[in-house]
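Hi F.,

I've been meaning to write this up properly since the lab meeting, where we talked about keeping a consistent format for the predictions we share between groups. The idea is simple: the sequence comes first, exactly as it goes in, then the structure tokens exactly as they come out, then a line or two of notes. No screenshots and no reformatting. I'm using this chain as the first example so we have something concrete to point to.
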Amino acid sequence: MSNASPTPRSAPKIRPQQQSAVMDFSIRNAPASTEILLSGRMTFADHETFRTIISHFDRPAGHRMVFNLSKLDFVDSSGLGMLIIARDTAQKKNLDFAIRGARDEVRRLITVAKFHKMFTIDD
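Output, unedited:
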């Protein structure tokens, strides 16, 4: 048996989370369009919040629904799926649908997932 003490291990460094842990949203209505500003992190945990957002799609045909992603820090695959649900819901209700303002990691993911080919992107 050895008297040597085990090699000390340093604990993994944990960075303080600087981003909001949940998605938040605000809605701005105008006569011809509705802008939904998403902020924080859009993940599977936001499914119920997203249902609330979709409930605002009760607009006349031709109305423009715009998802402003300029304050969104992160989106996972579930969040991307929710954007598809929003687009499909808009199409079923004959609404015009667009996303705008994606930046950094969110923009990269939209490009990698080829969403720029599936969505109208206003930038």
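Notes:
The chain has a mean pLDDT of 87.
The CA atoms of residues 23 and 40 lie 5 Å apart.

If this format works for you, I'll send the rest the same way.

G.
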